[in-house]
Amino acid sequence: MTAPTKPPHSSPADGPADALAGSPPGEGHVTLHASVIDWFDENARDLPWRLPEAGPWGVMVSEFMLQQTPVNRVLPVYEQWLARWPRPADLAREAPGEAVRAWGRLGYPRRALRLHGAAVAITERHGGDVPTDHAQLLALPGIGEYTAAAVASFAYGQRHAVLDTNVRRVFARAVSGVQYPPNATTAAERKLARTLLPEDEQTAARWAAASMELGALVCTAKNETCHRCPIAAQCAWRLAGKPEHNGPPRRGQTYAGTDRQVRGKLLAVLREAHAPVPQAALDRVWHEPVQRARALDGLVADGLVEPLSGGLYRLPLT
Q: Is the sign of the CA dihedral 146, 148, 150, 152 positive or negative?
């Protein structure tokens, strides 16, 4: 989600992005790249992980936090996190429970444990510096295909296809002519992303950031603003009359009354406490005992909560 230094665009003589009208993409996407990158230069949000001083660690932290979480919720936690742990080794020295505590209410707190595990590995294997090599990034605990590509691209300006939900939606509409991408990333989407990737490393890195921002601000899941889109005239979905989604039902995000909500309430008690918490204090956060016990067992199984003798619980120390 960062913005590497703006490179010169390739020459338009390389050919127009006429593949956007629905045929399989091939050569000639220079116009597409230039349009989106130029739009990004004018409209990119001023985000702290895009600043040079954020460094690779700041980029990595942002990528963990931004998974399934909007920017406005991430910003205050991100700034507090980097102030407290400006380098991976600073976080690695802390107990993993402190990462969970600092994660606050961002949701999906296993990300905090994974980020802590990555910090430990970076400290032990790479001298405390986030590795530049994509394969080494992918080998870190808690880092999958997307995060490795994002860090390599946004932190180091490398050429990788970075496919998050926003990018997948832009490609689905602009190139494939459908309203939404599949629920899970497919081999066809990966192939398309590689085909659309600029050859020049710096341009590719900026294209990754720009196409992601376009999906976040303009080509949104609901209420897209096509009149603001730099590639509206080439968009296969718009040119087809914006046909309605006819694929598998899109997964909704429910929260109220779910085990996830109960887990959040239990963790909130433990985050606020700096001593082990008795079972009775946890029992007060949710009225239904079976669901409450299931949520607590899940937290223990995920390594987010450590049970102690005497019916006490705490955030993990190891």
A: negative
